[in-house]
Each structure stands twice: as C-alpha cells, then as structure tokens.
Specification:
By secondary structure, the protein is of the alpha+beta class. It has 3 helices and 9 strands, in the order βαββββαββαββ. It comes from Natronorubrum bangense.
Amino acid sequence: MAISQETEMTAAAIDDFLGHHETGVLSLARTDEPYSIPISYGYDDDDRVFYMRLVSTPESEKRAFLDTSPSARLVVYDEQASSYRSVIATGTLENIPPAELTPSQIAQYGDAKRPLFEIWAQQKDELDIELYRLTPDSLNGRQTDIDREA
C-alpha cells in the first residue's frame, strides 16, 4: 500500500466536507496535559464557525478542562474506498451564554446531534449542558489517496 496522491483541500471543499459531517474529535490542552472527546457539531460555512453542545458533570475531567478556556483542536475525518479526508480546526473554545444566542446560532446548535442522556449514569438535572463556539484560527483539510495494489 502506497500513497498515490496527497492534496490540500480548497476552502470550498473544506466547507462542503464539514457541512456533510456532524461528528469529530475535540482535543483540549492546558499546559502539557491533553484531553480528547468525540463530539457532534453544527457548522456555519458563511462564518466558518463550529457550534457544539458539551455535557459534563461538575466533578468531571471535561469540566476541569472547559473551565480553563483551553486551546482546542477539532479533527473531522472519513475514509471512503481508497481515499482519506480530514479537516483540522484550531482555536479557542468559547462558552456562549444562551441569552446571547442569535436565531442563526440557535439553528447551528440544532445541527449538532443532541447527547443521549441515557448514556450518563447521572440524572439529566445533575449534568452541565453548555453551548460552545469554536472560531478557528486555522482551518486546514487534506485528502490522501492510497494505491492498495502498490
């Protein structure tokens, strides 16, 4: 197996890719400690901004990271036949108070899949459900085609 072609995705290809996907891996960092979680997101291709609903408990590791305004990296990827595509967004995760949301932002949160509360050991009223925005400082995509016969 060998790489037959590797190309950078155009801005339009990145927007299309992100608009057709809804999940990725969000990595947060503080000092030298990383934390990664799978998430769902809504993507506004006009402003090139991600919206996500994050669920945590007050004592969780996730909450400890979110409370520090961490640097963030969101990776969205897929594999189709012999082609791999990935987009990486980096920036700072920003908590958005619900009272500050605009109607268009609310629509973006609607595009993010709702968490299934049944998977949490705690009752719904014991969970912190907060809304976040990631406005990327950088947004890059790559497509890699593999020659499986080589």
